[in-house]
Structure to design on (259 residues):
């Protein structure tokens, strides 16, 4: 089975359709970097970065990484103490979402040697954008509502108390758009705010930072918690019906058997 990933020690390269990107496994918080879409650089983009809440980030927390089919799997752990161990799957899922130019799922699991703990971490994406929207479930129906907003003027936060929601962003100089959603079983909140996206040289790029806090529940010894976040590059701006078509296979998927 051909994998869209290549792994060279601690550097992973993804080639998925017209999307190309790198992941520096020493910096999981940066996620997919150096993005190219149809050969064109997406300046300042960092997608599906996992910000691990380690007490001493100066120490080497990387344990191992390997490829398995469409998955890049990386394991991280606290050093010298029986506290937390994380496993991150960056999973290419092109066949499940034919609407997308590229689809990637981040699956994060955590376990602990502590009797009682709070393992919260944040998954974060940064990307340039010219416009944004949030889609929310309509109470009492199966429909969705779309609210457009200018990320340069105002941010947005959505929470599980108001029901499930997701964000979408227009990418500059292209008709393509970017969609990111947390599985409803794992959704607590998501927030988007304006940033100057990281870029090389002196070029400054307007963009947005999208953050999802994960694992806000207690974790006991011997228990494994998992969360799932889906990212899609779409060839055009999606309609509400297109979002619903994407929702169904994502919502209905079985919880992955990570180790």
């Amino acid at each position: 089975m051909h994998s869209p990933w290549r792994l060279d020690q601690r550097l992973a390269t993804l080639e998925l359709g017209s999307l190309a990107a790198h992941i520096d496994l020493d910096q999981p918080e940066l996620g997919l970097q150096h993005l190219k879409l149809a050969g064109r650089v997406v300046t300042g983009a960092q997608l599906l970065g996992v910000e691990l809440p380690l007490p001493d980030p100066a120490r080497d927390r990387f344990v191992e990484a390997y490829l398995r089919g469409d998955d890049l799997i990386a394991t991280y752990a606290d050093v010298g103490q029986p506290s937390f161990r994380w496993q991150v799957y960056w999973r290419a899922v092109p066949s499940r979402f034919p609407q997308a130019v590229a689809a990637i799922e981040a699956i994060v699991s955590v376990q602990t040697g502590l009797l009682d703990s709070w393992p919260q971490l944040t998954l974060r994406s940064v990307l340039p954008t010219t416009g944004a929207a949030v889609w929310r479930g309509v109470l009492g129906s199966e429909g969705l509502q779309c609210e457009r907003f200018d990320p340069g003027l105002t941010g947005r936060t959505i929470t599980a108390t108001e029901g499930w929601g997701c964000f979408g962003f227009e990418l500059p100089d292209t008709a393509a758009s970017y969609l990111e959603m947390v599985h409803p079983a794992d959704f607590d909140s998501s927030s988007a705010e304006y940033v100057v996206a990281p870029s090389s040289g002196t070029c400054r790029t307007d963009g947005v930072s999208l953050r999802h806090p994960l694992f806000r529940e207690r974790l006991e010894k011997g228990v494994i918690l998992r969360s799932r976040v889906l990212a899609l590059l779409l060839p055009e701006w999606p309609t509400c019906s297109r979002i619903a078509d994407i929702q169904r296979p994502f919502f209905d998927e079985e919880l992955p058997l990570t180790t």
Observations:
- The two ends are 21 Å apart (CA to CA).
- Residues 5-252 form a domain with the Beta-galactosidase; Chain A, domain 5 fold (CATH 2.70.98.10).
